Amino acid sequence: MSQEALINLSVIILFLPLLGFVLTLFAGMKFKWAYLIENAIIVIGFLLSVVLLYNKLSYYVETNITAEFSWINFGVIPFFGEIVVKLGIMLDNVAVIMIFTVFLISMVVHLFSIDYMKGDKRYNRYFAYLGIFTFSMSGIVFTHNVLMMYIFWELVGLSSYLLIGFWFEKKSASDAAKKAFIVNRIGDLGMFAGILILFTTYRTFSFQGIFDAVAAGHLPFNSEFWLTVTGLLLFCGAIGKSAQFPLHVWLPDAMEGPTPVSALIHAATMVAAGVYFVVRIFPILSGDALLVIAIIGAISAFIPATIALTQNDIKRVLAYSTVSQLGYMIMALGVGAYVFAFFHLITHAFFKACLFLGSGSVIHSMHHEQDIQNMGGLRKKMPITYITFLVASLALSGIPFTSGFLSKDGILAGTLAFTSLTGNWFFPLIGFSVALLTAFYMFRLIILTFHGNPKNKEKYDHAHESPFLMIMPLVLLSGLSIFLWYTPNPFNADSGWVLSKWVKAPAISVPESARYSFMVEEPKDESIINQVEEVTFSNEYTHAMHSVHVPTMILSALLAGLGILFAFMFYQWKKIDPDKLAAKVKPLYNLSYNKWYFDEFYNTVFVGGVLAFSNFLRWFDNTIIDGIVNGSASVTRGISRLSRKFDDGVVDGLVNSTAYFSGFVGLLFRKFQTGKVQTYIVLVIFSLLILLFLFKSF
Amino acid sequence: MVTVGLYHFLFVSTILFSLGIFAVVTRKNAIMVLMGIELILNSANINFVAFARYGNFGFQGQLMALFVIVLAAAEAAIALAIVLNIYKVFSSVNVDEIDRLKE
């Protein structure tokens, strides 16, 4: 296929789900079978994405195919220059692998939902929403510019709002939808500011254009500090979307949506967008920005992992594990393990989707029971769900021979390499302890759900294996959690296809003085034969990665095994009573059980703060503003009163007094005009006499 | 022995004139007013005759006096007729009450 054909194909893939959304939404009002349109379209979309993936990776593995068109041409703006907003598509290996993942997961979620959502009164609308969710994510994946990224970014926010609040009759669901939307908006604010800085500086939205400009030494406000700030502002968007500390609070609440939607959100469409965005803007992230990103990632990896230890809702445990794993990816990006972060994004997408769909299968068969304390023993009733869930959990825990082991191992090696280069022990410490915690809480979940004796006999008796359309996706996804799809060597992903050929660390655009010291480019060291050199930034880093690889592998596998062992000791063999231990470390247990009081903290500080501020504003309005208004009214009234006095007294007085004067004069002269001839005669005579005396000529 | 001169005539006519004016101004009765007017006219007649006697005017004064007497007779006839009609309408000859024209 030619490059144009690939671009056309990707445009078709991009707009197919939108078509599905529109058709399903409108046909769904009339026809019961409208959901089949959406399903058919998503399957076609998946097949096309396979074609795209195959062609891109077979024929254009080294080239980035870009197509753009100018969307809005503002012409020349005074004092600013020419503004042309271009949208476009960029197909690189990262994008096509991501789009394949998105469509695969979206497809299995669609198929899974056919049975899971059966009987829902807004059945067709549900599928339409899935369609627009997939469309939004495809836009994020394909875009070659940061503006289109932002547009689809908000579309993802909207779709997640629609789907999390799908059962909006439940107050908790509509609250969770609002929370997700608003918390995301907080992050997007930063992202938007970052985009504005980029555009005003570079007059272009396209990633490549920005990277080239930065590489040419053109920095925002000509300072490396502002480059860092811009990077961090953009990262704010990822904090919101990928549910990173401190904006992670929306993700566990998003469990109010239908379970397949959770699978979609957690695996491919929503939270992945944040990591994908950081992957995209990686070349302009300066060393300081990366360090902050790594710290936020580490915190986000650790806190939710501790919270997941004590949660009893099957979906909540998985939700916190997602936040934790996303923290891993962000941390990996922060320490420079770019390739492994993306690799983990893909592997995590498959096994996390499998876990969520598995939990959906459990919830479905338990008649919407989500509390793992009421489960147990389901292994015998739902063998296929159990096995797929187990495989995915092993992958999440990082047990050898799974995909999760490969990617997690890479991330941990990246943190260790970072340590050996900079002496910072924080990241590997967090990384390894999270690996231990992850293994523990996943197997706690498995043991409480599938092992042991049923706690709720009635629900257990009604439990049954899910129908084929729900089992098939589980088998498919758990199959994808096996190492074989990624590399022939189960212990080292470096020789695999993904890392050695397809995904490579990008050229860093940031000026050398602002980078991590080890990211400074050097001539290639020919002595390293290992493929690792392809994926890292400098020989120094390559050496470090290489030297820590084996210890990392052993240590992470050991820790994962240890976590699983602990889980079995606690919950299967009952060697240690978890309740007693919890009582012993009561404060810690409460901290974890209450999710580190984040929701309470936010409620008090932010919600309460906003309320208090609003109250203050109300007081201000009532007292000051109304006072001013009322005061001015009183003053006006006073002035009017004075004016009335003036009118009444002075003006009217003048007028009246004129009238009175006329009246008085009239009264006076009336006396002379009696209407009697005799009076007039007297007057005439007197007048004559007076005249006579006046003109007397003597 | 005081000879009767022009001034005596003028004096008498002045008194007569004043009395006539007084009658015209003060009387309420229309007939009395008319009588006052007659007095005034007669005072004028005295003046005319006196000036004719003592002045060098020939008989012009006497002629004028005769004219005035005729005029006064005509005037009295017309005025009395009017007064009679007024009395018919108003049942009064009081000049103060006859003020319908004012309205």
Can you give a write-up of this model?
- The complex is a heterodimer of chains A (698) and B (103).
- Chain A has 698 residues and is mainly alpha-helical.
- Chain A is 71% helix and 3% strand.
- Chain A has helices spanning 3-27, 35-59, 93-116, 123-142, 146-164, 171-202, 207-215, 224-241, 250-253, 259-269, 271-281, 287-308, 314-334, 338-365, 378-381, 383-397, 403-422, 426-450, 457-462, 468-479, 497-502, 539-572, 578-584, 586-593, 598-670, 677-694; strands at 65-77, 81-91.
- In chain A, strands 1-2 form a two-stranded antiparallel sheet.
- The longest helix of chain A is centred in the C-terminal third of the chain and has 73 residues, at 598-670.
- Chain B is mostly helical.
- Helices cover 75% and strands 0% of the residues of chain B.
- The longest helix of chain B has 31 residues, at 60-90.
- The chains are: A mainly alpha (698), B mainly alpha (103).
- The interface between A and B is small, with 7 and 9 residues.
